[in-house]
Amino acid sequence: MTGHDHQAAKPWSESALTDTEFDRHHLWHPYSSMTTPSPVWQVASASGVRLRLRDGRELIDGMASWWCAVHGYNHPRLNQAATEQLDSMAHVMFGGLTHGPAIALGRRLVALTPPGLDKVFLADSGSVAVEVAMKMAIQYQQARGKPEKQRLLALQRGYHGDTMGAMSVCDPQRGMHHLFAGVLTAQHFVREPQAVFPRTGPLQHEPLQHDQPRDDSILAADIAALRQALALHHQHLAALILEPVVQGAGGMRFYHPDYLRAARRLCDEFDVLLIADEIATGFGRTGKLFACEHAAITPDILCLGKALTGGYMTLSATLATTLVAETISQGDAGCFMHGPTFMGNPLACRVACESIDLLLESDWQTQVQRIEQQLEQGLTPLRGQAGIKDVRVLGAIGVVQLEQAANVAELQPLCVAQGIWVRPFADCVYVMPPFVMNNDDLATLTTGIQTALGQYLAAE
């Protein structure tokens, strides 16, 4: 077939379709079907915490564009940083070259992250940050003369990304990647922690049964299960990977910081590295700058992404201790075997520096506490209602867990009709709003969730 014939054979031509039709027939959206696509809404512009649709409606964004737009949209300082960087260079390869924005970002990350994380690898997405961390752990063990330590231990209900290596450490049964189980590297898994994050507010978790063990008994059982898994598999384990305190896309679960503290101790005992995936939790989302701070621990390797650039562009960072980095560098390869094309992209690094400065100059802790209080107040009325399994809040994260998985195609339009943008998944209707959202907008957001869920559950 010639190029001309190939073009002529296409069943749809761009000129014959409206934008909506072209999108429906040609653009593949995340986790969507091309035969029965879910509805989408075209955004014309975004500013502050609002998305302006092409039809003129405005939606209060409760998702911060999948958790990354912590400063809201169209922020003048981030705009200015991007514009100024464009005047010098948008990109230059990082192999054999360096530049000011990458150095400035590295300085900030080394200073802000838990002590001991002194080596910074800049890549282009959260999934790649996880791939980099996994390769670091495996190459570290190889350089130590322990090539048999090449598997990872991960938590059930965990989620670490959509690339092949990252998928292998996501929950293999209940996760979204079970279809690929036969082609992914077989990793080891331990049950997810059952001891919940300690709460003192109105949403403190109540026992499911009157005879449920005390939290300390549950925590002890969690730690015993982790110890057992490490004792059984440590000779073949390069690292334990986990999402500290908050398991995100695996169910929006908040677990006890003492489990994280025990994980650090047990990894040391069994000679296994600890990888903390803070792609979702980093930069203040849980009320601490990094979720590891809830347990006052330093992982051997730390993954960052999402809010790193304030939602302006894709960028990730994988930080490692000096021991990990120097051991890898002294191995047979003499270097770390990874190098993405857009590694250390100057434009992304410059915006990331401005985003971090903007966060640190703000009273972000008070903002997150205020959001937590508003989410608790606004979501509490849903607790105990028919069809609602649980309501929980931590920092700037609010979760309504349903008894059954949500039908997104039915629930999403009900949320849009309330003037809010909320993207449910599985059995969770959750929000992670920008930190700059004011109380009135938070009230509209939570009231809209109450109304939309009331309509949805009544129709079920």
From TrEMBL:
It comes from Oceanobacter antarcticus. Keywords: Aminotransferase, Biotin biosynthesis, Cytoplasm, Pyridoxal phosphate, S-adenosyl-L-methionine, Transferase. PANTHER family: ADENOSYLMETHIONINE-8-AMINO-7-OXONONANOATE AMINOTRANSFERASE. Pathway: Cofactor biosynthesis; biotin biosynthesis; 7,8-diaminononanoate from 8-amino-7-oxononanoate (SAM route): step 1/1. The modification N6-(pyridoxal phosphate)lysine is found at K306. Belongs to the class-III pyridoxal-phosphate-dependent aminotransferase family. BioA subfamily. Pyridoxal 5'-phosphate binds at G126, S127, D277, P340, T341. It is found in: Cytoplasm. Pfam families: Aminotran_3. The record marks Y31 as: Participates in the substrate recognition with KAPA and in a stacking interaction with the adenine ring of SAM. Catalyzes the transfer of the alpha-amino group from S-adenosyl-L-methionine (SAM) to 7-keto-8-aminopelargonic acid (KAPA) to form 7,8-diaminopelargonic acid (DAPA). It is the only aminotransferase known to utilize SAM as an amino donor. Homodimer. Gene3D superfamilies: Aspartate Aminotransferase, domain 1 (3.90.1150.10), Type I PLP-dependent aspartate aminotransferase-like (Major domain) (3.40.640.10). Substrate binds at W66, Y159, K306, G339, R423. PROSITE patterns: AA_TRANSFER_CLASS_3. GO terms for molecular function: adenosylmethionine-8-amino-7-oxononanoate transaminase activity. HAMAP family: BioA (MF_00834). Its EC number is 2.6.1.62. Its cofactor is pyridoxal 5'-phosphate. This is Adenosylmethionine-8-amino-7-oxononanoate aminotransferase.
